[in-house]
């Protein structure tokens, strides 16, 4: 379940704008979701290999070039599906809590 939630969070971050790995880690950290690079890199690679993400290289003035990730059309469709599933789960849990 956590893997699916982490994927959902990462796709949501990248959906807002192209993101560099450290941008993704920082956004997760701000949400109190502590994820290490060793977890993030394989997940990003898998999503890229599955056609969910694409990336572009950008030169950096403070070090090596940076890889910026963006959602593909398939990635946007997957994110929409994950949002629907999340809302259904959230609503079901809320019903349990309220009753």
Structure description:
The radius of gyration is 15 Å and the shape is elongated. The chain has 4 helices and 3 strands; from the N terminus they run αβααββα. It has a 3-stranded antiparallel sheet with strand order 1-3-2. A hairpin with a 2-residue loop joins β2 (53-60) and β3. It starts with a helix and ends with a helix. It has 99 residues and is of the alpha+beta class. The longest helix is centred in the C-terminal third of the chain and has 26 residues, at 73-98. Helices cover 65% and strands 19% of the residues.
Q: Which residue ranges are poorly predicted, with pLDDT under 50 across at least 5 consecutive positions?
A: none
The main β sheet shows up as:
3 strands, antiparallel
Radius of gyration: 15 Å
Helix content: 55-70%
| Shape designation | elongated
Number of helices: 4
Strand percentage lies at 15-25%
C-alpha end-to-end distance: 24 Å
Number of strands: 3
Helix/strand order: HEHHEEH
The largest sheet has its strands arranged as 1-3-2
Could you say which structural class the secondary elements and strand pairing correspond to? alpha+beta
Task: Give the mean pLDDT.
Answer: 94
